[in-house]
Specification:
This protein is α+β, with helices and mostly antiparallel strands. The chain is built from seven helices and eleven strands. Strands 3, 4, 5, 6, 7, 8, 9, 10 and 11 form a nine-stranded mixed sheet that branches. The longest helix is centred in the first third of the chain and has 64 residues. The radius of gyration is 29 Å and the shape is elongated.
Length: 305
């Protein structure tokens, strides 16, 4: 009996050591988990502050730019309405010539903007244009980085890294919008900012009723009419197409129009030729990393180039 008692006494310290070891491991994992959660929370708070600060900067800039928008009737005409109006004008006797309207180009009313380019370039010297799409919240400066094409995919206008980034073009495109196709990129943000509203053009009624894109530069306003909205692949448009020849440009146009047989909105009454000047607005498709949603428009006031 004495031997068994001594054996039990010897076992107890070993069990205590094992229990203490397990407890220490448990505490270690709790500490690591808590530290990880704190780091993740810190990153989340940081990213939220960066995004909110950048978004606020955009909102304040847009408010300044739009302070002259006092027109109560900014309704835009569709292509068919312009054709009908032209036909009616031809068949109606005109007694006096209409007075020229300064905020109208290609028969379309231009949203008024207060664009202080010197002030905007103080915010960021890469700002060179402004894009506005009536009917959406897309009303932003357009930037182009001088050396890094992907810079504004990852950086904000104020230089901070993170979302929402900027609306931007790449160096392959001229800042004068004289290329056959100028491609503008923007994130599809969950808070509906940047190019998220492009997805509204998936709805045919919205597509028909909101056909215009306006691009403002220091010397002119470009008026574009949307003729296509669809999901495309993620191929780089400017690298994968040959726009140097009319044959290459026609092949590209035909490829766009081929989307009529798919889930796409295509406006057949908007003329697009190899001599046209296009813009393509590109954003991501949620849950489809190899796809992009594209909204494409053709320049109406070609004489302004």
């Amino acid at each position: 009996m004495e031997k068994n008692k001594n054996k039990e006494v010897k076992l107890k310290p070993e069990k205590n050591k094992e229990a203490k070891k397990r407890f220490n491991i448990y505490i270690y994992f709790i500490i690591v988990l808590a530290a990880t959660l704190l780091v993740v929370l810190g990153i989340f708070i940081r990213n939220y502050r960066i995004q909110r600060t950048a978004q606020k900067e955009y909102e304040e800039l847009a408010a300044k730019v739009n302070q002259l928008q006092t027109r109560t009737d900014n309704r835009m005409q569709t292509s068919q309405e312009r054709v009908t109006q032209a036909e009616n004008t031809e068949s109606t006797e005109v007694n006096e010539p209409a007075e020229p309207v300064e905020d109208t180009k290609a028969g379309v009313n231009i949203p008024e903007k207060t664009l202080d380019w010197d002030e905007m370039r103080k915010l960021n010297p890469d700002i060179y244009a402004w894009i506005c799409i009536p009917g959406t919240d897309i009303d932003y400066p357009v930037l182009q980085h001088p050396t890094d094409d992907s810079y504004y995919l990852n950086y904000n206008m104020n230089g901070t890294r993170g979302y929402p980034g900027c609306i931007y073009t790449e160096k392959l495109n001229s800042k004068e919008f004289t290329d056959f196709d100028t491609v503008l990129y923007g994130h599809n943000m969950r808070n509906a900012s940047m190019f998220a509203d492009l997805h509204d053009y998936e709805v045919s009624t919205f597509f028909e009723n909101n056909p215009y894109v306006f691009v403002y530069t220091g010397s002119r306003v470009f008026v574009y009419e949307i003729f296509a909205a669809y999901k495309g692949n993620d191929a780089h448009i400017l690298y994968m197409n040959d726009f140097s020849t009319k044959a290459g440009r026609q092949e590209y146009i035909d490829g766009i129009l081929d989307n009529r047989d798919k889930e796409a909105n295509i406006r057949a009454d908007v003329p697009v030729t190899v001599d046209s000047h296009l813009i393509t607005l590109s954003t991501c498709v949620k849950g489809e990393n190899d796809r992009r949603f594209l909204v494409q428009a053709v320049l109406l006031n070609e004489d302004d180039l």
